[in-house]
């Protein structure tokens, strides 16, 4: 949507964009996202185990952290294919994610007490990228070759989450409702959340 927004704001002669270049760029981005992760499903102890594997070569999701996120959506269905329960539901009409009962991969930055006092902004996570001086959360999945020591050295370690050295995947367990006979599982990626757009 970003390139389309740019074309709405600026004439093509300024940006050197055209219909074909935008569609080609979108196709490349989609292909990159499709190759960025893999997923394995299993049932362990009566629970559905979803393993998301980072195949990207960098944190997943990567890039500009404010508003960028991934989440697991699980839809449990009964024998007739009717929805029994859903985890990680996203409402396309309101652009709101229900994060209860699922895993959301994201980084949350904000201000510590000293920065809040200096700026007059509230302490804690927020949307003030230029002012942020503290990581409050970073559970993005590390790439292959990850070690805690190497990531700490460059101040890129997980925050409020733990990954073992060498771990480039993450597991999430879901209780399976009694009436469920199957499940549909997807990993969704969002470049910019509603909160970021309207911050």
What does the model show?
The structure is a single chain. With 199 residues, the protein is α+β, with helices and mostly antiparallel strands. 23% of the residues lie in helices and 33% in strands. It has six helices and eleven strands. The protein has helices at 2-9, 12-15, 19-35, 113-119, 148-153, 194-197; strands at 37-44, 47-54, 69-77, 83-87, 90-91, 96-97, 104-111, 124-125, 134-138, 169-175, 182-190. The strands form three sheets. Strands 3, 4, 7, 8, 9 and 11 form a six-stranded antiparallel β-sheet that branches. A hairpin with a 5-residue loop joins β3 and β4 (83-87). The protein is globular. The mean pLDDT is 93.
Helix content: 10-25%
**Contiguous uncertain segments of 5+ residues:** none
> Tally the helices: what do you get?
6
Mean pLDDT: 93
N- to C-terminal distance: 18 Å
Instruction: Give me the strand/helix succession.
Output: HHHEEEEEEEHEEHEEH
Shape: globular
Strand fraction equals 25-35%
- By DSSP, the count of extended strands is 11
Derived from helix and strand composition plus strand pairing, the structural class reads: alpha+beta
Largest sheet: 6 strands, antiparallel
The Rg value, from CA coordinates, equals 19 Å
């Amino acid at each position: 949507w970003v390139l389309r927004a740019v074309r709405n704001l600026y004439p093509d002669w300024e940006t050197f964009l055209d219909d074909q270049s935008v569609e080609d760029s979108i196709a490349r981005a989609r292909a990159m996202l499709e190759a960025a992760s893999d997923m394995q499903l299993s049932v362990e102890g009566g629970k559905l185990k979803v393993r998301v594997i980072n195949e990207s070569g960098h944190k997943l999701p990567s890039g500009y952290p404010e508003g960028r996120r991934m989440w697991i959506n699980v839809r449990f269905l009964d024998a007739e294919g009717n929805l029994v329960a859903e985890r990680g539901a996203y409402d396309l009409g309101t652009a709101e994610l229900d994060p209860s009962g699922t895993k959301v991969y994201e980084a949350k930055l904000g201000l510590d007490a000293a920065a809040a006092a200096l700026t007059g902004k509230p302490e804690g996570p927020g949307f003030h990228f230029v002012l942020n001086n503290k990581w409050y959360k970073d559970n993005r999945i590390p790439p292959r070759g990850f070690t805690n020591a190497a990531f700490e050295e460059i101040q890129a370690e997980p925050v409020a989450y733990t990954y073992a050295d060498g771990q480039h995947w993450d597991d999430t367990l879901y209780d399976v409702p009694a009436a469920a006979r199957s499940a549909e599982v997807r990993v969704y990626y969002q470049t910019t959340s509603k909160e970021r757009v309207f911050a």
